[in-house]
Specification:
The chain is α+β, with helices and mostly antiparallel strands and 785 residues long. Helix content is 46%, strand content 11%. The relative contact order is 0.10. InterPro entries: Bact_TGase-like, Papain-like_cys_pep_sf, TgpA-like_C, TgpA_N, Transglutaminase-like.
């Protein structure tokens, strides 16, 4: 090779190396974006429950290991290493959750059910030790995806990371923006990787476009389901939830977001005959996200009496009659037994609360027995602070980044408290006296508890209960957020009418040796005034559903022997106080037990096996103002029906992706070429010159001949092609005449308009004969025949 040639060759190599490096950089960057998408979801989760620093450290170590081992171990060994990471990680997870590896392996059906529940819509935040789960989940896909990318196995690397992202999409944790970012990153990795491996060509551009469209559409399919994220599918009976997004008190959904302004509903929800006045609990939540609450764990079929609290309790029987379709089973805490047809559809949560597996209908009635805790202030003050590990692990959670100001303000409130009971009472009293009650509030950005304590002057029960729960946890006192209803309007010595405006939220704190004790930090007087006024307005306006026969003649205020719940100066027992002030308008005592209901004699319309068609007509399914949370009796003022498809940039992106994918797929399969050839065959068009018209007519003729016989071979002249076909039985002799006219126009000095028209007409006739009747009519109409 000459010096010049060698120099030129080196120049070409250098020129090619530059785009190769750029393509590799783009491919690796795409894998990083994909990895960051699903790791960011895990970081959001750990940001709620803690463990972000540990997760980042694990991801960094795994990245370094993948980079170092990329040239040292084979692909098969790398796959084994990723699986080992997963096995060790989930072994750690099972140990943390108390299940144990051996127990987990012996309960593969339960593990399969849990996995399917997650991949069909159960958010990760409902898992108990989700921080440990994130540590177990991340290393495998991160290591394998990056290892394969460094090894230039881009497609396999994207597949490994894509599976991880898809899992989080199916659980509902990966939002639209995150999913799009991960999808684009994966496509970029594959695309740039193809360009690198193919030395900078774009021969596979149509394949990449099809892949892009498919990934976008599939990854967003869950987000575009009408009505919201689908509920989880559970294989093991009794582990599912109804997936409802209704008001907290009316449906006790698994997740709830704290809203701003709310409204009140005066409609009657249920009536209760009880041996004593109580708050009627419907939901218990343990995990605070900063913007709302999550109930961890899954619901299981109620198959026997629940365990009563560890302390001294009093048995309280209640008979609840449903007056409006509902998805909850209100009861005084702590419920231990339920009787009636609804028992067949009763499930229990991991927090000891009953919940129906399907909607209750108007007229449903059930008896429920509760073990109400009896404990004096002195007993609670002397309670141990040796909390059970399972209680502290679950009920001391706070989002990461709680401000020092919040901690300092809480410490100042409880500075004079000598024990957890005094601390809880101090926090309760502080919020009652320092904050006002109002339904018209603007939700603060970020952590709602911090915003309410440090910035807001007034709020409603959700804000009070949320803030007190987090203040208690800051002081190391296990606490949880509770929703349900205040006692309602007392219409007889042992009967209460409970309306939507009685929906409420309060707090339960744990005391070793006793159990969960209720505290209500919401100022009762202001709340009662708002609720009384709303009921009177509803009656004056003749609104429907606001009274029963027993309540219509009872006044809404204290003068009518009504109560919006005990005016709790200090709640000292779970759900009903000892030594509290007497309810306004008269006392409440166990003067008459509730009437018993004979088995099988419930006055309702339930079908066989106690089934009922779900249907909540009178409750806003979104809880108002975009919230799944309408407590204090608020049905909310919804923003109307949800649009589908959603009107958003994401919808446009999906639409564009589909069009690009369809176009690229059509090009890849040759469909566009076939359509183009068919269009050229059927439509001649006219040009300014006869020679050009004859050439077009001959090109159309070749399409016909190719369909009937075979394509013209390379090096075969037009005359040779036509002559070779002339000996076949189906050969049309008109083809020879068109070829002759084409030869004369090309090599014989040209032809006139009449000859050009003759060639066009001959091909038109031959083309019409190739079409079915409708095609012939179309062509005839186009040519004016």
């Amino acid at each position: 090779m000459s010096t010049t040639d060698a120099t030129a060759s080196r120049s070409v190599d250098v020129d090619r190396a530059i785009p190769d490096r750029a393509f590799r950089t783009g491919a690796l960057a795409g894998v990083l974006v994909l990895t960051a998408s699903y790791v960011s979801v895990l970081l959001e989760v750990t940001g709620v429950v803690g463990g972000t620093a540990r997760l980042l450290a694990v991801v960094a170590v795994v990245f370094a290991a993948a980079t170092l081992l990329a040239r040292a171990i084979a692909v098969r060994t790398a796959v084994g290493t990723a699986l080992l990471f997963g096995a060790v990680g989930f072994g750690y997870y099972f140990t943390v959750t108390g299940v144990g590896v051996g127990t987990a392996l012996g309960s593969l059906d339960r593990l399969a059910s849990d996995t399917i529940a997650i991949t069909t819509g159960m958010p990760l935040l409902r898992m108990m030790a989700v921080d440990s789960w994130a540590l177990a989940f991340a290393p495998g896909p991160v290591f394998l995806s990056w290892y394969l990318a460094v090894r230039r196995r881009y497609v396999l690397g994207v597949l490994a990371g894509g599976i991880a992202l898809a899992f989080l999409v199916l659980s509902g944790d990966a939002g639209v923006a995150t999913t799009l970012a991960g999808t684009v990153g994966g496509i970029a990795a594959v695309g740039f990787g193809e360009l690198e491996l193919r030395r900078g060509t774009i021969a596979q551009a149509d394949v990449l476009a099809v892949l892009f469209a498919a990934m976008v559409v599939l990854s967003l399919s869950v987000s575009l389901v009408p009505g919201g994220t689908p509920g989880p599918t559970v294989l093991i009976e009794g582990q599912g939830t109804d997936g409802s997004l209704e008001a907290n008190s009316a449906t006790a959904p698994e997740e709830t977001t704290i809203a701003g302004n709310v409204s009140l509903s005066p409609e009657v929800r249920f009536t209760v005959r009880s041996e004593r006045e109580s708050y009627w609990r419907t939901g218990v939540y343990d995990r605070f996200t900063g913007e709302g609450w999550v109930r961890t764990g899954q619901q299981e079929a109620f198959d026997g009496r629940l365990e009563a609290p560890p302390g001294e309790t009093e048995t309280v029987n209640q008979t609840v009659t449903v007056e409006d379709d509902a998805r909850v089973l209100p009861a005084a805490a702590s419920p231990v037994e339920i009787e009636g047809d609804v028992r067949e559809i009763t499930e229990r949560t991991d927090h000891g609360q009953f919940h129906p597996s399907e909607a209750l209908i108007e007229g449903d009635r059930y008896n429920v027995e509760s073990a109400v805790l009896n404990a004096s202030s002195e007993e609670l003050a002397n309670a141990s602070t040796d909390y059970p590990e399972e209680v502290t692990a679950q009920y001391l959670q706070q989002p990461e980044g709680v401000s020092a100001e919040f901690e300092d303000a809480t410490a100042e409130v409880v500075a004079d408290a000598d024990d957890p009971h005094e601390a809880a009472s101090a926090i309760e009293e502080h919020l009652r006296t320092e904050k006002g009650y109002s339904l018209n509030v603007t939700r603060p950005d970020g952590n709602v508890a911090e915003g309410f304590l440090l910035e807001m002057e007034e709020g409603y029960c959700v804000y009070f209960a949320t803030t007190m729960t987090q203040m208690l946890r800051t002081e190391g006192i296990p606490a949880r957020y509770v929703t349900g209803y205040t006692s309602g309007q007392q219409v007889d010595d042992n009967e209460w009418v409970v309306r939507g405006l009685n929906a409420h939220a309060w707090v339960e704190a744990y005391f070793p040796g006793h159990g969960w004790v209720a505290f209500d930090p919401t100022p009762g007087g202001d709340r009662d005034d708002v609720h009384y006024d709303r009921l009177e307005d509803a009656r004056e306006n003749n609104e429907s559903g606001v009274d029963t026969g027993a309540s219509e003649d009872v006044a809404a205020g204290p003068e009518g022997n009504t109560s919006d719940g005990p005016d709790l100066d200090r709640v000292e027992v779970e759900n009903a106080p000892i030594n509290v002030s007497e309810p306004a308008g008269g006392g409440v005592g166990p003067t008459e037990p509730p009437s018993e209901i004979p088995d099988g004699a419930l006055p309702n319309d339930r079908g066989p096996n106690g089934s009922a068609e779900p249907g909540i007509d009178s409750l806003d399914p979104e809880g108002g103002n975009g919230s799944a949370n309408a407590t204090d009796g608020d049905d909310g003022e919804g923003d109307g029906e949800r649009e589908f498809p959603p009107s958003s940039p994401e919808t446009a992106i999906v639409g564009i992706a589909v069009l690009v994918g369809l176009a690229a797929g059509a090009h890849r399969t040759g469909a566009t070429a076939r359509v183009s050839r068919s269009a050229r065959l059927q439509y001649q068009g006219r040009t300014a010159g006869p020679d050009a018209d004859v050439e077009r007519a001959y090109r159309r003729l070749e399409i016909l001949l190719e369909r009937r016989h075979r394509p013209r071979e390379a090096g075969e002249s037009t005359r040779q092609y036509v002559e070779a076909l002339s000996g076949t039985p189906s050969f049309d002799p008109r083809a020879r005449r068109v070829e002759e006219l084409y030869e004369r126009s090309t090599y014989g000095g040209g032809i006139d308009r009449a000859a050009a028209n003759e060639a066009i007409d001959l091909v038109d006739r031959m083309a019409r004969e190739e079409l079915p009747a409708i095609g012939r009519l179309y062509t005839a109409g186009r040519n004016g025949r």
